[in-house]
Write a structure and sequence with these properties.
Layout: E1 4-10, H1 19-31, E2 35-41, H2 52-59, H3 67-72, H4 74-84, E3 88-94, H5 102-111, E4 118-121, E5 124-127, E6 134-139, H6 153-162, E7 168-173, H7 182-191
Parallel strand pairs: 1-2, 1-3, 3-6, 6-7
Antiparallel strand pairs: 4-5
Length: 204
């Protein structure tokens, strides 16, 4: 009997007292029975930002890429491979200054690749990753999710849909500066989850 694979991605720069990390711990514990967990901490080590060499390698057709091109894209391939091997994903992302942390933006730039995780068709963009249950754990101080100053949650929803992920479940401890119950509600939402980790392998 094959085991399920769960990918966990953490974007918080804080190790201690991080609400998103604590909520992700709780969620992973609930989801991870008989599951192999791959942990990707975006703060350790910090991810590189996309540069000119990376762009040149990415836009070069695969059959024309040199060894140097492939080397530049190695980390990107590793990150995308973690998605391809997963049956479910947990993304823990705080809101910094109304948007996503720089580490999360760097991660997104490395996994969103034309002809690899998305392609354009006559009907518009098509995501190339197999859809799978994805849990987006978010926390904020003064920013309410869905408010006019929230430039994080809508962006993440769009990016994930862009690469094929639409089975998205958001768990939020938002507006904690003025809402002392926000974290408790997020914890309760995790405890009330009934969705199992589902297999998404092509063979099924």
């Amino acid at each position: 009997m094959s085991r399920h694979h769960l990918l966990r991605v953490d974007a918080s720069s804080r190790r201690e007292a991080s609400v998103t990390r604590a909520l992700a711990d709780r969620l992973v514990e609930r989801l991870a029975a008989e599951t192999v967990v791959t942990e990707r901490d975006l703060a350790d080590p910090p991810l590189p930002f996309v540069d000119g060499d990376w762009i040149a390698a990415n836009i070069t057709p695969d059959e024309a890429r040199t060894q140097a091109h492939h080397q530049v894209l190695t980390l990107s391939e590793t990150l995308i491979g973690e998605w391809e091997q997963s049956d479910a994903v947990v993304i823990a992302c705080p809101i910094y200054n109304f948007g996503v942390p720089a580490a999360m933006k760097a991660y997104i730039d490395l996994i969103c690749r034309a002809q690899r995780t998305f392609r354009y068709s006559t009907d518009g963009p098509v995501g190339l990753l197999a859809n799978r249950p994805t849990y987006l754990v978010m926390a904020s101080g003064g920013t309410r999710l869905g408010s006019p100053i929230d430039f994080a949650s809508g962006y993440l929803r769009h990016v994930l849909s862009f690469i094929g992920i639409t089975d998205l479940h958001v768990i939020a401890a938002d507006g904690q500066s003025s809402d002392t119950e926000a974290r408790s509600r997020a914890e309760a939402a995790i405890d009330d989850l009934t969705l199992p980790v589902r297999k998404v392998k092509p063979s099924e």
